[in-house]
């Protein structure tokens, strides 16, 4: 009854859209021509006006197991009826302990400790704080500098926007945390344009880290944080060997390496984590999104055993990490995540991205030659189609393709700047890949 009541209220009174200040949205434009989703199942959303929309973005890079999964629904329903909330500060309930063990099993070897958050942004701020506190716990309290990367996106907390490299964050919110520096990004369409898989050029960009160490001195640097594959700035891939070289330099100078796997985690690139696909093990991994299939907000930070160990040498009655969220390890989120991990394991979804990778790649690269397409990038079940920007109106062309896809082609894609970024649920099949690319191709053809 609750659902019917609010659903019909929402559709019968579309004018009631004023109060919700939507995140990362052009609010006035949206409210003139809304895009409202009412329900979802499998690979499809259904709109409030009854259209079935093929989901090319896994919601927002989070619904890796597809929508409306019975197992997750049952787990959450049972959990809320049993234990709605329990504190995890000096208290506990069984689920986060069980979930952390399950997560340690799928994490890269050596990252066996898990700290729970509610989002990717919180995971990032948590990891940055752990990195700084780790050095202090070992008597190197002067290591507070954080190194991020241009075009990096690490969520919206002050820590995350500081190590991130998006100019809009500087423009609107000021310089951010002191003592942060950035590596250059690795996007180089001139040399790597229309390359399939990892770029062949750009390994030398990893040497930026040597330069920053020479500039700031290693003794001031706590950690480097990078996305193995950036999503939000338009799908930027690591050149062959780049991540391995960054790891080597971090090891040489005792700098912690954080992989932000909020979008690459939980099977997006054919292994549980991109760290495993690339064969490079960081000291901390930040995750969220796919952890609970997007159903209940949850994030998790994976921590290397020896990093965790540094916090365990004080008196046992002392709080070892002065950090946490009221909802860390929330019962509903844990129930959703446990059910999600069951689905991933039973349906072998982490392997799905590798099985389908070449079909996905072929379908995507077949769009080469369409009007205004200046680059195509892919890895795992991630795809990007970069369009030339209109003179003086960056982002407007991709937005028009997005709008056309949604309103006329019944396909949900995501655009960031003039890049179309694709991250479908991992349950997709070849027929969905065909349908998605043919609809996008038509929308690109119809856009000036
Ligand atoms: N880090 C990365 C790499 C992301 O892509 C995102 C979100 O897209 C975040 C952090 C922030 O996650 P959230 O929106 O859950 O705070």
Bound molecules: pyridoxal-5'-phosphate
Please give the domain count. Answer: 2
Shape: globular
CATH architecture of the largest domain: 3-Layer(aba) Sandwich
Instruction: Supply the number of helical segments.
Output: 17
Helix content: 25-40%
Query: Which sequence of strands runs across the widest sheet?
Result: 4-10-9-8-7-5-6
Features of this protein?
single chain, 448 residues, alpha/beta, Aspartate Aminotransferase, domain 1, seven-stranded mixed sheet, four-stranded mixed sheet, 15% strand, binds pyridoxal-5'-phosphate, Aminotrans_3_PPA_site, pyridoxal phosphate, aminotransferase, adenosylmethionine-8-amino-7-oxononanoate transaminase activity, Aspartate aminotransferase family protein
Short structural summary:
With 448 residues, the protein is of the alpha/beta class. 39% of the residues lie in helices and 15% in strands. The strands form three sheets. Strands 4-10-9-8-7-5-6 form a seven-stranded mixed beta sheet, sandwiched between helices. Strands 1-2-3-13 form a four-stranded mixed beta sheet. The chain has a four-stranded antiparallel beta sheet with strand order 11-12-15-14.
